[in-house]
């Protein structure tokens, strides 16, 4: 007797149903590609072009004086949170069968992600160098 196993690591784009799943699948591919470039650029700025001993409050304060770096850091924050939340949403959907537990897990995931997004956005937008 041979059983058919599903290779969950090779998800195919959803066919049929709501367009949300297809858009979420496409978002994961695009945001993952953008995140690679953002993360590599972030690593070069923070760890290659600058000595890690100089990465302190003053470095970040000087960096965030320009809107470009605040926007860059906010985009990195927003995309990484959305990408991670969408990935965990799929994992929860695929691995939790009980509808009540699945709904609770999704609610906890969305709530936690929203809290981190609000705190991160507040830190970037409301940051003032001189306190």
Automatic annotation (TrEMBL):
The answer, when asked if Metal-binding is one of the entry's keywords, is yes
Which locations, inside or outside the cell, does it occupy? Membrane
One family from Pfam that matches here is: Sdh_cyt
Cellular component (GO) terms are: membrane
Entry GO MF terms: metal ion binding
Q: Which residues cross the membrane?
A: 26-49, 74-92, 104-128
**Record's keyword terms, sorted:** Heme, Iron, Membrane, Metal-binding, Transmembrane, Transmembrane helix
- Does Heme count among this protein's keywords? yes
Annotated protein name in UniProt: Succinate dehydrogenase, hydrophobic anchor subunit
Which species? Candidatus Actinomarina minuta
- Lineage summary: Bacteria, Bacillati, Actinomycetota, Actinomycetes, Candidatus Actinomarinidae
């Amino acid at each position: 007797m041979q059983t058919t196993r599903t290779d969950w690591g090779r998800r195919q784009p959803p066919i049929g149903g709501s367009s949300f799943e297809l858009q979420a699948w496409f978002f994961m591919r695009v945001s993952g590609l953008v995140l690679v470039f953002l993360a590599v650029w972030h690593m070069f700025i923070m760890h290659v072009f600058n000595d890690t001993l100089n990465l302190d409050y003053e470095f970040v304060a000087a960096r965030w004086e320009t809107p470009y770096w605040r926007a860059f850091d906010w985009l990195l924050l927003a995309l990484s949170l959305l990408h991670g939340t969408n990935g965990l949403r799929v994992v929860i959907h695929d691995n939790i069968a009980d509808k009540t537990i699945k709904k609770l897990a999704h609610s906890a995931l969305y709530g936690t992600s929203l809290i981190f997004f609000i705190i991160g956005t507040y830190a970037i937008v409301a940051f003032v160098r001189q306190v």
